[in-house]
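Collaborator request log, item 7. Partner lab (contact: R.S.) asked for a structural prediction of Glycosyltransferase RgtA/B/C/D-like domain-containing protein to inform their binding assays.
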Amino acid sequence: MIHAAFGGFILPVADTGWMLSGRIGPDPVQYWLGWTAFARDEWRIPPGANPGWGMELASSIFYSDSIPLVAFLFKALRPVIEVGQYWGLWIYACGALQAVLAWRLMGLATTDAMARLAVAGLFVMQPLLLARLGGHFALGGQFLLLAGLWLCVTRGEGWRRAAAWGALLAAAALIQAYLLPMVGALWAADWLARAADPARRGGARIAAEAVCVPALGIAGLWAGGFFLLSGGFGGTWGGYGKMQLDLLAPFDPGYWGAFLPDIETAGHLEAGNSYPGLGALAVLAGGALAWLAGPRGALRRHWALLLVLAGLLLLAITHRVAIGGREFEVLPLPDWIVSRADALRASERFFWPVLYAALLGAAVALVRALGGRRAGFVLFAALMLQAADLRPGFARLHHYFIVQPPTVPLRLADPFWREAAARYAFVRVVPTGMQATNWEEVAVYAATLGLQTDAVYLARIDPRAVEAVNARVADALQRGAHEPRTFYVLGDEASLARARAGMDPARDLLDRFDGRWVLAPGWRVQATTNSSAR
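Returned to partner:
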């Protein structure tokens, strides 16, 4: 399924063209830039520190969404093999692990191969997963949620259970920040269930786990470089309650479904990715009917998990309830709470573990009502319905993931740029900031030819640092106090006016190249320093 959706051309680790062509959007470019700077740098403390991309705005590999866990692995292997990109391998690994864990989970209820295979297919052919693998690659690590559900629904206690949870939280912290609170919530459910069971709580051991497991998650954040950022955790746009789960979102096919009518839901950037597919909806409906018709006592064993999943659902919905695109502020929250919750602004994502748990529970209910073999045929039919329904979504993926050359040429193609790379060590975009004008072209150019730049796109950025850099550079341009070995790509009229006011026409070059205004201090007196670009 993953191969059919994305193609095998994304697998060769030396081929970066499919990421840098711009066809998928700016996010893959961000991941590659973070990894490229990180791979070239020496190991630091913490290991995720990444000062090589962003100059004063730099932070860590964590904030370039470059999957620190995998980045650590390939950086350690760099003396043996040089990897240009590992996201193709990651996409395939996410699909494989999602399928294996869904197979294992369904194996707790039945040995029927068709039922297990069909459920594995439904979990992989899932818009919640495929939408993320279509651009937000780190968020494709949703197999961590299935691993957490596995631990929640299987019996176990003692140090091995605690070690499994600790490893899972550390891995989540080193893959993507949003996955960590989801996995942490699942651990809390399992811990609470064991703590309430006299036969499983283990005395002081359960108390020690309450400290050690979260500590491992925090250690993962530290290793990835989470704490290197001093501000800006709420992001530069949106906020908690503005990217919430619309109550009709699971029934809105958007660009994914072929059969259900498109309905009005919330219009924010996260909208359109909570539709589970018509086949999955059929399983959920059938499972609900089977549960209502049969014995329902089994859910009591999982009371803690249900409680936590209800909490995650409320977190996804937020205090600003959306129904069919209309918002209702049901529970006004103090500003100090909302400002802290802004770090988890894309709250619709917290629907993922709820949907996965519900889909698994529905499949199990069908098996118990129909028997493994008959349920297998029903679930396989649902998988075929899912495949037919998601044809528009797959077509959309194919539109973005098309075969590209192994490498793509720089978009800044004028000979000036390579000559500038031979003369200067730094290039700034003015003004700088999150996805500033010209950031992508300049950042890829700088990374390719070995310059330092403040052209960045990071998951989070400190606005105070951005303000300080822009103020200092604006003053320097105005006064002609240009930084050594630095040239400037000007992104607005104000910067161009300052550059003109402060330049010395006898020494400095101010001109347009590839449609971009550039100030190159000292260019006219460096004519004898020409050399091949780095």
